[in-house]
Amino acid sequence: MNQHDFNQQLLDFLHASPTPYHAVKNMGEKLEAHGFQKLSESDSWSLTTGGRYYVTRNDSSIVAFVMGKADKGFRMVGAHTDFPCLKVKPTPELTRNGYLQLGVEVYGGALLNPWFDRDLSLAGRVQYITTDNRLTSQLINFEKAIATVPSLAIHLDREANKQRSINPQTDIPPVLFQLGKDEKADFRALLKEHLISEGHTDCQEVMEFDLSFYDTQRPAIIGMRDEFIASARLDNLLSCFVGLQSLINHKESETTALMVCNDHEEIGSNSATGAQGPLLKNILERIAGPGEALTRAMSQSMIISADNAHAIHPNFSDRHDGNHQPQINQGPVLKINANHRYATSDETASIYKMLSRQVGAGVQYFVTRTDLACGSTIGPLTEGELGLRTLDIGLPTFGMHSIRELAGTKDACQLAEVLNLFFELTELPC
After folding, report:
1. Do the domain assignments include residue 193?
2. Are 93 and 146 part of one and the same domain?
3. Do the domain assignments include residue 223?
4. Residue 390 belongs to a domain
5. Does a structural domain hold residue 222?
6. What is the pLDDT of residues 138-182, one digit of tens each?
7. How confident is the model at residue 429 (pLDDT cuts 50, 70, 90)?
8. How far is residue 140's CA from residue 124's CA, in Å, rounded to a whole number?
9. 184: how many CB neighbours lie within 10 A of its CB?
10. pLDDT for position 253
11. How many structural domains compose the chain?
12. Please, how many CA atoms are within 13 Å of residue 327, restricted to the half-sphere of its CB?
């Protein structure tokens, strides 16, 4: 696939995936279109060499693999499906000065300033009781702009450009509409109305929901020379898409090629669907076998944890170490930290560089300034749980955790080419 087509498919995926639930649904559909069979964790599995399979948990995490020989190890790529956002509270109705607003919680480390004055919609999963008294769930997406968080005019806050801070409890509840005289707000009733309008006429009562707001502006290629991809959720659906494309392109080999995309990375990964939970290990045991069999397989395995990296910002270049300043469109970034906040080792970095040279992909480094705190990824958690070689890598990005982030049009294709080679490795070179 050429770069243009690759990026256009990426934009479509980003637009169609406003929540982890939608991202997993879309990945599953694409996998099935390329011959992957969906498995259920509650069933007995009968796996065959060359078989193409995937499994989901909670509809928000996904593991897909092309089966090799059970004792030959794994080539794995990891990413995460979640991203910072505003999640609707269980009892969200706020009626103030004639407006209906919804109370929200901040999910993850969101950059809050860019959420003001955006055209917001709402998406996620709803649990409801049907007319024949069954509990079922449905993904929903309002799609159109139904809300906004208006800024306070500068005339009412003359110091706004100098020292405005944001109180997440009081300053960011989105405005949905103006209430009529004596009109009562009932968010669950609004959800029921929406479900019925979408054809789910069996909805009797909305029980619970997991919904978040998102920016309706479409992803786009921007810049005078079309160098940039601007979109919400690049961190980390960009890596999910790259891993997905490489796995779909992979043919049968002795080693099992596997992609895992976990939920809850942005809030610590400690959940049934997160990287610190049992999901991946459960599946690896079902493929390779438990105990000694899994240990032997892990000794021959490696995972590449793909999560976006900080590109050097031309207005804030002092926030980077002077010798480690990744540039957009100069290739993927090896992420290194002496305190193991990233899991890259000299061995795994060398393996990646060898693969990069074969396809002519660029290689850059990111090391956090020694006087600044360092973030982390699913890499160290997965390595600690499974005891296998791990590499942390990411595509250089501006505005990480903003409502709209910026990456390069060249970098994703380069990473995909390297991952294609990685999946084909029958033996690790060291």
Report:
1. yes
2. yes
3. no
4. yes
5. no
6. 999 999 999 999 999 999 988 888 888 899 999 999 999 999 988
7. confident
8. 6
9. 10
10. 86
11. 2
12. 6
pLDDT of residue 390 exceeding 80, the answer is yes
Q: Which pairing describes strands 256-262 and 61-66: parallel, antiparallel, or unpaired?
A: antiparallel
The amino acid at 380: P
Judgement on whether residues 255 and 385 belong to the same structural domain of the protein:
yes
Which amino acid appears at position 146 of this protein? I
Q: What are the pLDDT digits (tens) for 110-119?
A: 999 999 999 9
- Residues 257, 35: contact at Cβ < 8 Å? no
Q: Verify that 89 and 152 share a domain, yes or no.
A: yes
pTM of the shown model? 0.96
> What phi and psi values does residue 388 have, to the nearest 5 degrees?
-130, 165
Same domain flag for 170 and 250: no
Among 183, 215, 247, give the residue marking a domain's end.
215
Tell me which residue of 34, 25, 1, 9 sits closest to 261, measured CA to CA: 25
Please enumerate in sequence order all residues whose Cβ is within 8 A of that of 323, keeping only pairs 6 or more positions apart, or say none. 367
How far, in Å, CA of 264 to CA of 17, rounded? Answer: 16
Among 273, 261, 236, smallest CA distance to 77 is for: 261
Amino acid 427: pLDDT: 86
Question: Over the chain, what is the mean pLDDT?
Answer: 95
What domain range includes position 297?
3-82+232-424
Distance of CA 76 to the CA centre of its chain: 16
Amino acid identity of residue 294, one-letter, is L
Strand partners, 396: 309
Predicted confidence (pLDDT) per residue in 269-295, tens digit = 999 999 999 999 999 999 999 999 999
Whose tokens are 């991202």? That residue is 23
**200 within 8 A of 129, measured Cβ to Cβ:** no
How far CA 39 is from CA of 53, 70, 75, 97, 306, in Å, comes to 7, 18, 20, 51, 25
pLDDT-above-70 percentage for the chain: 100
